[in-house]
Here is the input.
Amino acid sequence: MADSPKSTTPRARRREALHQALVSVLGPDRAHTAIGLWEKLAAERGRMTVIELVNELAGPLQMDEGERHGLRMALYKSLDAAPMQPGAAPPSKPTMAPTPPAFVVFQSMGESILKGMKLAPNPGWYDFTQLLTKHLPLATSAVVRRWAIEGANLDALISLAPPDYAAVIHGLYITACEAVGPVAADRLLTHAVSTAGALPEAAQFPPNRLL
Amino acid sequence: MSRRRGVGLIAAGAALMWTGAVFAEGPLDTPADIAWTIVAAALVFFMQAGFALLEGGMVRAKNAVNVIMKNYSDMCFGVIAYWAIGYGLMFGATENGWFGLDHYLPDLQSGVEATHFIFQLMFAATAATIVSGAVAERMRFGPYVVASMIITGVIYAVYGAWAWGSFYDGAGWLVDMGFIDFAGSTVVHSIGGWCALAGVIVLGPRLGRFAPDGTPRDIPGHNLPYIALGGFILWLGWFGFNGGSTLSASAEVGIICVNTHLAGAAGFIGALLMQRLLRKPILMTAAVNGAIGGLVAITSPCATTVPMFALVIGLVAGGITVLGVMLLERFRLDDVVGAVSVHGFCGAWGTLSAALFYRGDLFDLARIQIQLIGIGAAFLWSFPTALLTFWIVKKVFGLRAPTLHEQRGLDFTEHYEIGYPEFQRDLTHAGKD
Here is the structure.
């Protein structure tokens, strides 16, 4: 299935997004099988979460843990990028305005922890997003989920209020504890504080305010 | 001396019978007895410093102050509870053999009573402080103090009444049966260990201590030299702990100290051998725990066994400390310092070994049976009551520190102080809330 700008219904757009993610991870042949399975499962059950879908596909397609993780991430990215309402425009970039120092510091710490977690061994064995959002207030978790999936696109979190930054950093710490262990998590946090502390913005907003 | 003697005396008397030795006058009767017992009490007090260093070293730097504050609290809050309630429960005159009925808030006018009291006070504090290491890094300070007072004042004291009571009139039901626990492998150590187990279960593990698939993750302590020094200090204190339990400046102290030392040494070696046998790395922390396990185990039979068997007892105990930690990890129980293994399991082993290796009468089945009853009674009393205590404290005060406090470290969140300001200041949160 080729990318088609003519897909207008939400289901068609979802299918297209799914297809793109499946092809990118599994290749065209296995993606074709996977789409068939998805259609069958969707007809039987209605809506499914990404985790449920990947679990269902893992057996028939003989996916290992790394592949499952990669597919989950690709599906999140692809589904989030696809506009689901007819005529909806893709999310626009925020207009250029001076970034608050608190956000710059927060962004640096968040990136540092995320980067450290990705470098940790066996990154595919846990569902990062699920772990992270589990420890956050509901209102914050939706915003954070997008941020966590997109990884580099931390701009998505600028809509949060500064007090939420500390909650997100704490959520990242807990996630890191569960994912890579408390010793590595402490190390990541220390490194994040040290990295953010070197920023000029740290003079106005010291990183330890987010601890 | 007309009064019935309590702690250690019955066991000491039994121990002395086989050697043919007798007290010249009786325990705590001569100035030398008093002096030795007071010195021994001071040595047992010094064990708190050992616990503080050992436990402080085994936690991360951000929790060092908190765990040491808990050690201090055991010695301060705990002993007041023991003075008010515990001593009377444990050593007051008893008619039923279950608990003492007098000597609450004791006046202690006589020097003999006071000497006995101060020595016992140090033992009580030791039992409580075993718990602090197991529950370190995630238990709030205030609720810990409440639990510590209940453990010292009630849980420890009631079992003590069964095994060591009374100092005044009557005898505990285990004493009547002939239960041997000379210096407290069970009375002090196992009781502390089972209370620690209850605390660990109610609290749950530290953040990330176990991977989602249950694999245990090591969280190394921040200061291994502290651990080693703490182990040595505990070892030193044990000469007072075991040697002082004669309550008499007698020649018997010599053999008790020899047995104590040999068991500690063998415990260290036992832990090394077990690690080698399991193809694990040889860890200093585990080896120090092995030595302490050996000391815990010999605490019960130190006056009734011979040096050769003291070695065996210590060697086995060292192995138990390693296996015990693995067993707890299998059940996802997070005992930070290995207290359950070292004090609970090794205490039980040592108490059993007092019957197995009784000098001149090895493997006596009747004695083994009595020891097993004593060991079982200790668990059946202390574990459920401690579980209930921690559960009630959890419901009333809240037991576990919030995850944010675990991240920041309990030093700062519970005490507004940090152990190493020069190195931790940048990592300290800007405010307490």
Notes: The two ends of chain B are 60 Å apart (CA to CA). The longest helix of chain B spans residues 365-396.
